[in-house]
Task: inverse folding
């Protein structure tokens, strides 16, 4: 329930990490003397990256859509499905490689999806005075994800070069949609009468905010022909909330639908095709 | 290679990216939960519904006055709900000895005052509760029955509109904070007329046409009320003389005024109705010493408003100017707020509350932080009527007014 300023300790550390890592990667002081050796040890790679991802929404602070008078907030908690819905991402991969290490900037357009369920029950004095609702919610987030990773090759020679990577990312929310499937069970007729109230889909971008986090993973570079194929698996974990905590949206208020304070965790599998960039560098024009 | 133009260009681009990220991350998250919230107070009781009447800001949150069903009478029971400053439910209490709670609720010296009725004697009762919902004032007002509406005066006394079923008069009274009768006047509803059945229906909320009782103060010693007078439901001006000083006549209960706010001079903001049509006048002149008819004020129908909608008119000031806020219900069962520029009379902004499920309107107040607090109900799961409290922050209102 406590608002967190952007420039909190964690967030400032991440920004610093971004800056330092970029300087470390780019701020080398002395160029190698031998151009051919340099070509082998230092290289830019540029290409496209695509893949699929699975998201887990981890509730840091839970909020109730209703303010209950005669029961506890816990009755209104949502149950989240972890890594249950696939998303996709596609973007660029820009690697600066130097002697076994790469600084990799991977801006991508990404769609993340997760789902959760909630339900409420009202009961009266009579046994038939009972009504239940059930909400199945799918949340879709469209993001521009800006990861900056440091990759370290485990094997530096050969056509197959496995690597490990760590880094951070910043995600910009571009749009968000919530799809809510509503079903009800009415016991007033003496039997449980189930019915559907349809599906509601609305834009909920205002309930979300940009977030940042850390990432790690492993992969393998496959150097065949004149391109490098990169296969990698990454795990991303946000360190800030992706939601504006406790904001009850006008459109969804009477459904009792409200976002928890969520930190997103993400497993992604990606395939990249990158090309050596310095072939167009003037210094190596003759090569 | 490191000094190549290409490398320098990429390095510059990376720094630009980081600068943009930092700027984006510093963006405002919006108003805090105490500045802006929308709360729905749910009760898991299938058989229960709430009929909120008014809300008042206290030193540590809000108190909501509501009616609710009782098993031993058809009159509404008196329910009080206490929330914190973020609108979260804290506690509730029912005043079992009284029925028919009447707004508005006013806070003076940490005590929130309102009127209710003794279900046996029909006598009006002044009730005061502290922020912990403990009753500190409980005073029956002798000779005054059927309380209908109240207002706070500039001298910190309470103006009470009531109905006298024996003498067939509407009564307007000044009541001290201890429940003492300070002064007042009674005016006939019309010889041979009897409106008791309509007043009982009004209490029981048996139909979709609630009677718009209200009262207020024009200046010290000069008051107005909207109630039964001389065979019609009219807006009556009085200085407590034997006869009203002026009347804006309605047409039976089919046409008249639903809410009014005195502006400067003899100008008023009026929310009126003409049978099942509604109108709003951001400023119109009314002579408190003359006789006029509400039908002459009717400028045309506001088709989006629900017939016989509950309405309120309040004033609101922001950095950009002074505004008159009309609150009502739409035919689509949303709460709608119209912001009129008080000086020009033109609409400066509109805000609707509610989307999927029906919403009803009960009351609107300004809060100490220049926010607006809107009270009403919504139908959870399309069937359970629950109280909704929506606080709009000053910054949100500024956005509406842009």
Result:
């Amino acid at each position: 329930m406590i608002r967190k300023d952007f420039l909190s300790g964690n967030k400032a550390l991440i920004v610093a990490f971004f800056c330092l890592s970029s300087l470390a990667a780019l701020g080398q002081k002395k160029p190698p003397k031998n151009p051919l050796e340099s070509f082998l040890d230092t290289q830019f790679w540029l290409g496209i990256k695509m893949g699929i991802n699975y998201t887990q929404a981890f509730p840091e602070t839970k909020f109730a859509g209703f303010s209950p008078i005669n029961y506890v907030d816990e009755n209104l908690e949502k149950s989240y499905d972890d890594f249950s819905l696939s998303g996709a991402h596609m973007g660029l991969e820009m690697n600066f490689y130097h002697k076994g290490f790469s600084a990799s900037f991977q801006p991508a357009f990404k769609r993340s999806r997760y789902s959760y369920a909630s339900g409420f029950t009202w009961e009266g004095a009579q046994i038939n005075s009972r009504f239940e609702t059930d909400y199945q919610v799918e949340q879709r987030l469209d993001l521009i994800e800006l990861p900056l990773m440091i990759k370290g090759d485990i094997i530096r020679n050969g056509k197959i070069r496995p690597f490990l990577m760590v880094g951070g990312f910043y995600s910009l929310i571009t749009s968000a949609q919530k799809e809510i499937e509503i079903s009800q069970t009415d016991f007033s007729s003496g039997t449980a009468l189930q019915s559907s109230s349809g599906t509601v889909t609305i834009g909920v971008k205002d309930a979300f905010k940009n977030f940042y986090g850390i990432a790690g993973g492993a992969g393998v570079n496959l150097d065949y022909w004149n391109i490098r194929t990169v296969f990698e698996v990454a795990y991303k974990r946000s360190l800030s909330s992706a939601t504006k905590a406790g904001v009850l949206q006008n459109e969804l208020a009477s459904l009792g639908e409200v976002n928890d304070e969520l930190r997103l965790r993400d497993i992604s599998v990606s395939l990249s095709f990158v090309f050596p960039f310095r072939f167009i560098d003037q210094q190596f024009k003759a090569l | 290679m490191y000094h190549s133009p290409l490398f320098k260009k990429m390095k510059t681009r990376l720094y630009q990216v980081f600068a943009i990220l930092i700027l984006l991350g510093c963006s405002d998250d919006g108003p805090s939960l105490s500045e802006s919230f929308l709360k729905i107070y749910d009760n898991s009781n299938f058989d229960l519904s709430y009929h909120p009447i008014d809300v008042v800001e206290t030193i540590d949150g809000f108190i909501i006055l509501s009616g609710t069903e009782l098993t031993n009478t058809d009159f509404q029971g008196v329910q009080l709900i206490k929330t914190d400053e973020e609108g979260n439910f804290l506690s509730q209490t029912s005043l079992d000895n009284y029925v028919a709670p009447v707004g508005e609720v006013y806070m003076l010296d940490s005590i929130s005052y309102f009127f209710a009725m003794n279900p046996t004697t029909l006598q009006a009762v002044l009730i005061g509760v502290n922020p912990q919902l403990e009753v500190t004032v409980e005073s029956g007002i002798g000779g005054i029955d059927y309380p209908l509406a109240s207002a706070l005066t500039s001298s910190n006394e309470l103006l009470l509109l009531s109905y006298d079923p024996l003498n067939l008069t509407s009564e307007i009274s000044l009541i001290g904070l201890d429940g003492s009768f300070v002064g007042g006047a009674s005016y006939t509803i019309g010889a041979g007329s009897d409106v008791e059945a309509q007043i009982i229906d009004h209490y029981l909320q048996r139909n979709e046409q609630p009677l718009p009782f209200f009262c207020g103060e024009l200046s010290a010693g000069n008051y107005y009320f909207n109630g039964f007078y001389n065979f019609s439901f009219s807006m009556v001006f009085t200085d407590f003389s034997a006869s009203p000083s002026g009347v804006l006549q309605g047409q039976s209960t089919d046409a008249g005024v639903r809410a009014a706010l005195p502006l400067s001079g003899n100008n008023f903001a009026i929310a009126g109705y003409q049978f099942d049509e509604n109108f709003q006048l951001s400023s119109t002149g009314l002579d408190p010493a003359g006789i006029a008819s509400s039908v002459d004020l009717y400028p045309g129908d506001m088709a989006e408003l629900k017939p016989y909608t509950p309405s309120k008119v309040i004033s609101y000031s922001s950095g950009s100017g002074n505004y008159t806020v009309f609150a009502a219900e739409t035919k689509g069962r949303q709460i709608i707020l119209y912001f009129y520029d008080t000086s020009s009379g033109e609409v400066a902004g509109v805000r609707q509350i509610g989307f999927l499920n029906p919403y009803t309107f009960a009351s609107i107040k300004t809060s100490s932080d220049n926010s607006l607090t809107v009270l009403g109900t919504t139908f959870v799961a399309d069937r359970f009527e629950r109280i909704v409290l929506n606080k709009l922050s000053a910054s949100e209102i500024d956005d509406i007014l842009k």
In short: Residues 9-116+138-177+205-284 of chain A form a domain with the Porin fold (CATH 2.40.160.20). The first strand of chain A starts at residue 42 and ends at 61. Residues 9-26 of chain A form the longest helix (18 residues). Chain A touches chain B through 58 residues (CB under 8 Å).
